[in-house]
Amino acid sequence: MGTQGHDRQIDYVELNVSDIGRSKSFYGNAFGWSFTDYGPDYCEFSDGRLKGGFTTTAPVRASGGPLVILYGDDLEDIEKRVRKAGGSIAKPIFSFPGGRRFHFCDPDGYELAVWSAR
User: Fold this and answer.
1) 98: left (phi > 0), else alpha (psi -120 to 50), else beta?
2) In what helix (H) or strand (E) does residue 81 lie, and over which residues does it extend?
3) pTM of the complete model
4) Topology of the domain comprising 12-116
5) What's the pLDDT at 6?
6) Is residue 7 predicted with pLDDT exceeding 80?
7) Cα 89 to the chain's mean position, in Å?
8) End-to-end CA gap in the chain
9) Three-state secondary-structure class, residue 84
10) If residue 27 lies in a helix (H) or strand (E), which one and from where to where?
11) Measured between alpha carbons, how far is 52 from 1 in angstroms, rounded to an integer?
C-alpha cells in the first residue's frame, strides 16, 4: 500500500467478507479482477488500476459505509455480468446529470455502483 506520487489519494479498499473464494469468483467473473492470496484470511484484488483486499478477519458490515463506484463503458453488459456472477441489482440503470448508473449488491450484501458517461 502507499507509493510515492499518491499523496492524499485513495490507495486501497478493503472489504470484510465471509468467503474469500466466493468473493474472488464474483468479482473475477463480473469484472475480470485478478487476485493474489496472502494466506487463508486475506486476498488482494486488482482491477488494473486500484488494489484492495478481501479479509475474513473481521465481521461483514455491508451497510452504512461509503459507496464504491466503478466505471463501465457498457452498463447493460456489466449489469448482465453482475447477475450471472451471483449479484443482485439494488437500483436498475438510471440517468443522472453527467451519465447513467446502477447499483448492485455482491454476495456479502455490499452495495456498489457502476456508472458510465454514456
Assistant:
1) left
2) helix 75-84
3) 0.88
4) 2,3-Dihydroxybiphenyl 1,2-Dioxygenase; domain 1 (3.10.180)
5) 66
6) no
7) 14
8) 32
9) helix
10) helix 20-31
11) 9
